[in-house]
Specification:
Blueprint lengths: L2 H6 L6 E2 L2 E2 L4 E4 L3 E5 L9 E5 L11 H22 L10 E6 L14 E6 L13 H7 L7 H7 L23 H21 L1
Antiparallel strand pairs: 1-2, 3-4, 4-5, 5-7, 6-7
Catalytic activity: P(1),P(3)-bis(5'-adenosyl) triphosphate + H2O = AMP + ADP + 2 H(+)
Keywords: Hydrolase, Nucleotide-binding
Protein name: Bis(5'-adenosyl)-triphosphatase
Length: 198
């Protein structure tokens, strides 16, 4: 059993903010986890979070902070392998890496999370119709990671308070659990292949 698989057997108690998300996790480290996104802005848009539900980036210990960013790098390498041309190096595409740190910045789940969004050459790169509006989409309803979770479990969702107006996108719906579990399973396989090659 690989170390990734071994770690993932202990994920049943992990939460993203108040939400249990065990089956959406594809990577677990001593201090962090990575999960697929309920409402991805682009293909491959995932989140990396500290295991402890810190609300702000400044609350992480040095060990947690180092592990969080090392995990972001590992996730980038994995996503590059899947989405970028052979041999799948991160330099064969680009990434948006973002943290909305606090409600006024648009954070809707009170748990630090790093958005990792691959930008695929000729498909989702800047200038291919996706450009800088990605940042507006992150601050708008499309980027409201917690909104659909709140809709499922609570009566009133928090409203992002970033500088951009909230924009409802009626056609962009939250994905089903089966779709998210399938994506997480794919990413786990790629990570296990990477471990075997190390």
């Amino acid at each position: 059993m690989s170390t990734t698989t071994a770690r993932l057997t202990h994920q049943s108690e992990i939460h993203f903010g108040p939400y249990p998300i065990a089956t959406q996790i594809f990577l677990l480290t001593p201090f962090s986890f990575a999960l697929v996104n309920l409402k991805p802005l682009l293909p491959g848009h995932v989140l990396v979070c500290p295991l402890k539900p810190h609300k702000r980036l400044t609350s992480l210990s040095p060990e947690e902070l180092l592990d969080l960013w090392k995990t972001v790098q590992k996730v980038q390498t994995m996503l590059a392998r899947h989405y970028f041309p052979s041999p799948g190096l991160p330099e064969q595409g680009s990434f948006n890496i973002a943290v909305q740190d606090g409600a006024e910045a648009g954070q809707t789940v009170p748990h630090v999370h790093v958005h990792v969004i691959p930008r695929i050459r000729g498909v989702t790169q800047k200038g291919d119709g996706v450009g800088d509006e990605l940042y507006e989409r992150m601050a708008a309803e499309e980027g409201n990671v917690g909104g659909a979770l709140w809709d499922r479990e609570m009566a009133k969702r928090p409203v992002g308070q970033g500088r951009f107006d909230r924009i409802e996108d009626k056609e962009r719906m939250a994905r089903g659990l089966g779709d998210m579990e399938a994506e997480a399973g794919l990413y786990k396989q790629i990570l296990e292949e990477m471990e075997r090659e190390e």
